[in-house]
Amino acid sequence: MTAKTADSTTLLGRWWQYQRERFPLHAHLPLIALVSLTALSYSAALRGEPGLPALAPLLATIIGTLLFFLCLRIADEFKDYADDCRYRPYRAVPRGLVSLQGLARLGAIAAATQVVLALWITPLLLLPLLLAWAYLGLMSKEFFVAEWLKARPFAYLCSHMLIMPLILLYATAFDWLAATEHPSAWLGMFLLMSLTNGVVLEVGRKLRAPADEEPGVDTYSVVWGRRRGALVWLAAMTTTAMLATAAAAPFNSAGATAVALGSLLLLAGWAAGRYIQRRPQRPLARTPFRALDAGRLFGPALRRPAMGDPGMNYLRFPTDAAPLAELGGKAFALQSLHGSLPIPAWFAVTPEALLASLSDAQRALLADGNPKAIADAVNALEPAAELQLELMAALTRLCPYGERVAVRSSAVDEDGAQHSFAGQLDSYLFVAPEDAADRIARVWRSAFGERTLAYRHERGLPVAPRRRRYSSSVW
User: Fold this and answer.
1) I want to staple 452 with a disulfide (CB 3.0 to 4.6 A). Which of 139, 146, 248, 424 is the partner?
2) Closest by Cα among 107, 91, 173 to 140
3) Do 140 and 205 touch, CB atoms closer than 8 A?
4) From CA 327, how far away is CA 471, in angstroms rounded?
5) Strand-pair category, 472-474 with 405-409
6) How much is the pTM?
């Protein structure tokens, strides 16, 4: 299945859509501008020069810091690519909106811009810039101990948040290095506060309600539990408030800072308590589907599977370890090209899905081989309930905004060296997600149409469905 968006038809449009989805400037730029202003003003005040910074270093700091966070996003796209393809194919890179190669070029442009900014203000800025780059490089490789870190969530969190004080060291250096002075010892308190504040933001964004959990996303509400995760978040916020109060001491404003942040901590404690005490609810599907009967599909005996879940029986994905040759030429070709070309996200429906959707009476009619009996059997063919559950889970993530998709045939003996089946099997374009199950059934029916049966008869091919014959690729 492929999903088309209205504003991704041109190169510029695709990059604009990427920033909207993965690095929204309207959200990042004001916050980074405020952080940059705070970093420069605090460093200058420690040097005995309070007041607003000059425009040139302020703009350079904002741009340089913004580019650092952009590079963090790009590094995450590379690091998480395999998991995104399996669990979150609706994201920009797996669905082909932009490519990893394009992101690498964008990262190189960002790095070159940071070098130019450093040379513009003072070449000494290259030192903290290189230090932050080196740490970012180690982060992107998970410090060469990926499995060890993933088994220890707290160590993983701290090791990745250490980039925050390095970025703030770079930002403050636009003041103290430009003034050719040594940084104040109090600056260390400010940098340490940025570390704990980063923990607050990171833990906070990965504490979720049960209905919002996603497969493949190791949230802290899952790995630690909601109670422990909320307590860690609250402890990090308390530590940040204490460090901020200490950082205000050189300006005789520690008392006022403590009162203000203490009020915020009370609100945070109340919110954490509400989160811990909230009664878990059964996860519901966040889906644009309208045609499927949600009450029937989500009864107490049925569980909504997650896309890429090993428990999925009837769908296969391009990142599956086993080759998809048994699912037909289209599916196998798409899997072979996956990762080398910007192919939109897709999945394939296995031949077993057709067999599971047939009743015993329909199987008997198909085995009879009589064209009229076959027509009677397939006219009433509908996807099995379990397949519809899997389709719902996959399409919810593939088409989060209800994008149209394509449903294509991919029979095992189609497009082969001996038999082409050219024009025999149906395909459907611009299909609404809620109509996908119906179109899959129509593709199946086309495999038993009059023309297809005549083609099989002429070439001595069997008619009745067998395991691993009738497949459809959905992309």
Assistant:
1) 424
2) 107
3) no
4) 6
5) antiparallel
6) 0.61
